[in-house]
Amino acid sequence: MQQPVFALIDCNNFFVSCERLFRPDLEGRPVVVLSSNDGCVVSRSGEAKALGIPMGAPAFKYRQLFNREGVVRFSANFELYGDVSERITRLLTRVTPRTEVYSVDESFLDLSRLDITDYDAWGRQVRDRLLREVGIPVAIGIAPSKTLAKLASEHAKTNARLEDVLDLARLPSEECELYLLRTPLKDIWGIGGRLKPRLQAEGLHNALDIARLPMRRAGQLMGVHGRQLVAELNGQVCHPLETFGRVRQTIMKGRMFGEDTNRFDVIEAAIASLTARATFYLRREGLAALGASLSLSTDRHKPNYRRQQQVIRFNAPTADTGRITAGLVTAAEEAFSPGFRYHRANVLLYDLVPEQSLQPDLFGEVDPEHQRSTRARLHALDAVNERYGRGALRYAAEDLSQAWHPRQQLRSPRYTTDWNELPEVYV
């Protein structure tokens, strides 16, 4: 039986690295990326971290420091980041199809079926190829379990001597234990802020302490997750690779509004736009939804915080943007109160099934022919938008108002996805 070996490819300061792709003048300068409404810091360059700017820092509190230290700020450009992430994924799947996209900036690879004799050299080749072909710097951790690979990538990222690659799969056990000893609880995959104080109270302070826990005690402290964590830190696989074949369970799109609002036309436009984006991804993955929910909330940092959630069900799975939007708008009308100023909307599609799994019902309420024609119409709409740009064809409700759009006063151009924003070179 082949010994399992995982690699975690972790992009360094991913959003900042995407901004630097087309701005090489920013190398060596402190850079931060702000959330959609320019409210807080969601990505920092190494230079910004050195200035003491924490993740999630409210921008208004650090404005003086930004100005004094010359910190370059960007509004989040998620369209650019998503496209760069897809380019990285395509490259990694050429390395091995056994790839799990864990997040927009992290992917696990199963290396056990590859003919690799020197994992350290292999990691450097992949690092160099990603930097050359995509332009994004990465750290790579290699280990016999996903938890250890994650731990290795953290050390590869912070220890310059490792040159961005750490292979724990072939290290002697004594050297592996040294890396576990140097890994504090906060850097262990699966240990959150609420669990950390409890573990510290038990005299546990690093990954080696957790790895040496008896299984029974780990279960008492952390349940099944604790036993799995101990096993993974000892090189046993409890979390196998989840490849592209798995069916997504939910799709959610949400946004904070550019300004709080009590106008229903603004909320209706937001619902229509968010549903259009969610159903686009639904169709792209060949899925349909049996249920949808809408969440509307006021600003939790202001008095009288309120959150409302409405749920709708369909008699047959659907990916029809118009149908889902109409149902959610009707539900919103029932819950809407002009006495509240709404701050955020979330659209969630759930109970997802393959779009071909339509079953006729006994009462004839489901019309297969209508479903097929609807599906063809929507795929034609997607094809037009893929060719001519997002929003070339859209539902009229999306244009009822632009007031909900998040503030993005510092957004960089969408260099790779919008013909009107291609980079320009003067010679």
Question: Can you put this structure into words, describing what you see?
Answer:
Helix 11 runs antiparallel to helix 12 (321-335). The chain has helices at 14-21, 46-50, 63-69, 78-95, 119-133, 146-158, 173-181, 195-201, 207-211, 215-233, 264-284, 321-335, 368-388, and strands spanning 6-11, 31-34, 41-44, 72-75, 99-103, 106-110, 138-143, 165-167, 251-261, 287-297, 307-318, 342-354. The termini are far apart. Strand 5 (99-103) and strand 6 form a beta hairpin. The radius of gyration is 24 Å and the shape is globular. It has three domains: 1-171, Alpha-Beta Plaits; 172-246, Orthogonal Bundle (DNA polymerase, domain 1), CATH 1.10.150; 251-399, Dna Ligase, domain 1 (2-Layer Sandwich). The chain has 427 residues and is of the alpha+beta class. A five-stranded mixed beta sheet has the order 5-6-1-7-8. The mean pLDDT is 90.
